[in-house]
Amino acid sequence: MSGFQTAISIDTAMKHISRNEYLLPAFQRDFVWKSEQIEKLFDSLMQGYPISSMLFWKVKGDTKARWKFYQFINSFVLNANDYAVSNTFLDANECGEFYAILDGQQRLTALRIGLYGQYAYHEPRKPWKYAAAYFPWRRLYLCLSKMGKNDDDYKYIFKFLKNSDTREKDFYIDDDGELWFKVGAVVAIYDSNEETTDYYSDKEEYKDIKLNKDQKIIINTLKKVIFSDKAINFYEEDEQNPDKAVNIFTRINAGGTFLSFSDLVFSLMVSHWERKDARTEVRSLISSVAGMGFDINKDYIVKSFLYLYHRSVKTSIQSFDKEFCAKIENNWDEISTAIISLYDLLRSYGLTSYSLTSNNATLPILYYIYHKKIYDGFSTKKNYGQDRATIKKWIMSAILRRIFGGQSDNILQQSRKYFTSDVDKEFISNDIIFDGKKLNDNINISNYIDDDFIDSIINTQKDDRYAFSILSLLYPDLDYKNNNFHKDHLHPESAYPSLSKELREKYPFKLYNSILNLQMLDSNENQSKKDMPLDAWVNKQCDNNSNRKKFLDEHLIPDINLSLDNFDQYAKERYVILKDKLKEILI
């Protein structure tokens, strides 16, 4: 019967989880807590603070067959670009009656990880690609030798310590001499029906651990919190109506701190897929794109579904009804292939997650290659060469002009009208080609480029995230896909102090370090060039006058005296070259 139930202990809840009597419905979100939140939860429990009530849905009968359910995780990796711990799917038909957790998943998972599992997060100054050395596993420990300071939020000090340091022992003394106790070890002590000192009395490896009275009290307090206190309060909903369960979940979580609106919409979509496991499919796609050097997330995936198929691109719960979700599931293989093809194309342009400043800017390209069904081999086949060149020019311009910044939904809605006036009737006409100017006309973006905008581009600094896009527009014919290119100072950076005082006053370093004095150069050439003076480098590359003119034109270098002493003339003439080139190529 629906209503509040008798409170239970944390240990009882953990046993229900281990026996698959507590499961997670498909529409639940992923675990997102940081290690500090888990540590604070345990401290709050030790101080006697209550956990807010949870909401459990009693699942029985035919309802089990209508939804997908998952087991709780007991380990977690935070923010690895290409790795995630997934909840395991469980065939609920093989289970008896069980509870689906509508509210309380994060807290129950946190307790499970703290008691039985492990947590990994990124080591400072290490690569973000997942590897055990970069994301070392940790277990939760409780400090026995000191307490939190009076002005701290924490009274008890909990900390996830690296397994490589603790060797996962029940007791660990750190380099500062502090004594730590592994939280999960309290389970074995409790199961033994012995006092803590008696339990360890015959264990040789801990013979040197001498617990004082206060330290024994801390461990006994932890035992009480886990096994005796009735800390888990919950409301049971037993009506076998899945739509009501989703509605309850939506109402509870819509205002939550960690559940973004697209997380919520994604959760609803997951609940409607019948044949494929949406969580696994989307996670795999995100990982594949990460392997190409780009970061996409559920926000982008949700937006791409709407842009490809829905009348409105604005993210809303109402858009993701069963019919729309079925359409996405039925076309998932093609959609995911098109997204991978899209990012392979962007990689061939030399873009990365750093220089691609707006993933939303890619959606018109996705729409084009997806609905034209040309995503297979789009980044390599010769017959798509003109399309690739046109798209590159447009996407680089869109990045520089920051077209898809604020009010992005409105911009996206207008941009799609270039391809179709009514997405419900026709996705795209067979004869349409990708025309960046006409696309911009649809979103009311002027194709006029003024001098102030050109100046802002030329003044862009070398390490600015837009610098790569600018240089790739200026040097469009380089093989970005198969070679590594560097942003290179034409007059070497190291030569700046050698400029006369007068020139340094006229050209401060931020001008010397800008596009005005930069080129795109193959990494091997750049290593060879190093700090070579510009005039010496040009002379080395050119063996005759005709070759020199061609070389200077390709590198957008003025045909003048290129010595450092002539920097004033060089800067003025290169500015004109860059300005004319940018006006020519920017849409």
In terms of per-residue confidence, which ranges show pLDDT below 50 for 5 or more consecutive residues? none
| Main β-sheet description | 7 strands, mixed
What percent of the residues sit in helical stretches (DSSP H or I)? Answer: 40-55%
- For this structure, the quaternary state is single chain
**Strand order, biggest sheet?**
1-13-3-7-2-4-6
Terminal residue distance: 65 Å
Secondary-structure class = alpha+beta
- Please state the overall shape, judged from the principal axes of the Cα atoms: flat
The structural domain count equals 3
Instruction: Give the overall average pLDDT.
Output: 89
Beta percentage is 5-15%
Number of strands: 15
**Separate helix tally:** 26
**Gyration radius from CA atoms, angstroms:** 30 Å
Domain GmrSD restriction endonucleases N-terminal: 17-268
Pfam families: GmrSD_N
InterPro entries: GmrSD_N
